[in-house]
């Protein structure tokens, strides 16, 4: 399996995780009043996704800087990592846009 397909499969699995988390059970506000924040949830999953994309961007940047400075001659590897970072960032932005649209839609609902 090539690396682009692997990144796409990874992003699809993350999107499935987000979908599963968003379809979770009822909200339990009593947990918030008891001072216990839920350990797993959408915010945690989204934070992990952002951190993973950020790490991918930094890795890509470091490889490109190494090629630019002449420390590495693996241009193909650096370009593949750059494309992985680009796909991951694009997927993250699409998820963010979908979530923003969903939030706006909920806010427009009559009470």
UniProtKB/TrEMBL annotation:
<keyword id="KW-0282">Flagellum</keyword>
<dbReference type="GO" id="GO:0003774">
    <property type="term" value="F:cytoskeletal motor activity"/>
</dbReference>
<dbReference type="GO" id="GO:0005198">
    <property type="term" value="F:structural molecule activity"/>
</dbReference>
<keyword id="KW-0975">Bacterial flagellum</keyword>
<comment type="similarity">
    <text>Belongs to the FliE family.</text>
</comment>
<dbReference type="InterPro" id="IPR001624">
    <property type="entry name" value="FliE"/>
</dbReference>
<dbReference type="Pfam" id="PF02049">
    <property type="entry name" value="FliE"/>
</dbReference>
<dbReference type="GO" id="GO:0071973">
    <property type="term" value="P:bacterial-type flagellum-dependent cell motility"/>
</dbReference>
<dbReference type="GO" id="GO:0009425">
    <property type="term" value="C:bacterial-type flagellum basal body"/>
</dbReference>
<keyword id="KW-0969">Cilium</keyword>
<protein>
    <recommendedName>
        <fullName>Flagellar hook-basal body complex protein FliE</fullName>
    </recommendedName>
</protein>
<keyword id="KW-0966">Cell projection</keyword>
């Amino acid at each position: 399996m090539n690396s682009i397909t692997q990144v796409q499969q990874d992003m699809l699995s993350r999107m499935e995780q987000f979908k599963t988390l968003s379809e979770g059970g009822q909200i339990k506000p009593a947990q918030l009043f008891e001072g216990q924040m839920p350990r797993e949830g959408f915010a945690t999953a989204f934070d992990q996704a952002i951190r993973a994309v950020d790490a991918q961007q930094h890795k890509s940047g470091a490889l490109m800087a190494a090629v630019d400075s002449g420390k590495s001659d693996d241009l193909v590897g650096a370009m593949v990592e750059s494309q992985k970072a680009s796909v991951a960032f694009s997927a993250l932005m699409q998820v963010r846009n979908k979530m923003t649209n969903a939030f706006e839609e909920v806010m427009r609902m009559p009470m």
